[in-house]
Amino acid sequence: YRRLHSRETRLSKFNQTEIKAMLGSYTKVLFVRDPFHRLIATFLQGMGISQSFSSFVQEVLDSGMRNGSVAWKPLVSLCQPCLIQYDYVVMFGFLGQELGHLLRRAGLPAGSLLPELTDSQVQWTYRWLSEQMFSELSAQQKQQLSHFYHWDLAAFPFSSSFLSD
């Protein structure tokens, strides 16, 4: 296809035939992260530095889907997992286990390319942060967040997410 290797990066700029050809010729990997952890990371990276976590969450909820940042929009709306058949879905917190396998499947030398990953420390830290941040939210905010990320929680196995309670 003439535009198969064009500089354009958004799939929406291509027609259905070109999209199908491109998606069929690549190994598609989707990296997913608990939506509540994504909110915490965004908050800690400075997007909510001058406010409380509760105020930041309220800002996210008020912005909704249309005006929301890519940093906190639901993954389902960003990655279209119902339309794109991903070859691999890698969960944040299991990168050390999954990336080596993925690199070997791609024919790459896994050992030399991987950084040192300490998944158990990451999981423990986010569990602790989640407990602290979740306790700052009102019951209504908790319910609204669960509703906002409903499709992410249904599409991916975030069984230990505070939002799935």
Automatic annotation (TrEMBL):
Gene Ontology molecular function terms on file: sulfotransferase activity
Predominant subcellular localization, coarse grouping: Golgi
Family according to the record: Belongs to the sulfotransferase 2 family.
Subcellular location field: Golgi apparatus membrane
Pfam families in the record: Sulfotransfer_2 (PF03567)
PANTHER family the record matches: CARBOHYDRATE SULFOTRANSFERASE (PTHR12137)
One cellular component term from this protein's GO annotations in UniProt: Golgi membrane
EC number(s) on file: 2.8.2.-
Keyword annotations of the record: Carbohydrate metabolism, Glycoprotein, Golgi apparatus, Membrane, Signal-anchor, Transferase, Transmembrane, Transmembrane helix
Organism: Helopsaltes ochotensis (Middendorff's grasshopper-warbler)
Bilayer topology term: Single-pass type II membrane protein
Protein name per Swiss-Prot or TrEMBL: Carbohydrate sulfotransferase
A GO BP annotation: carbohydrate biosynthetic process
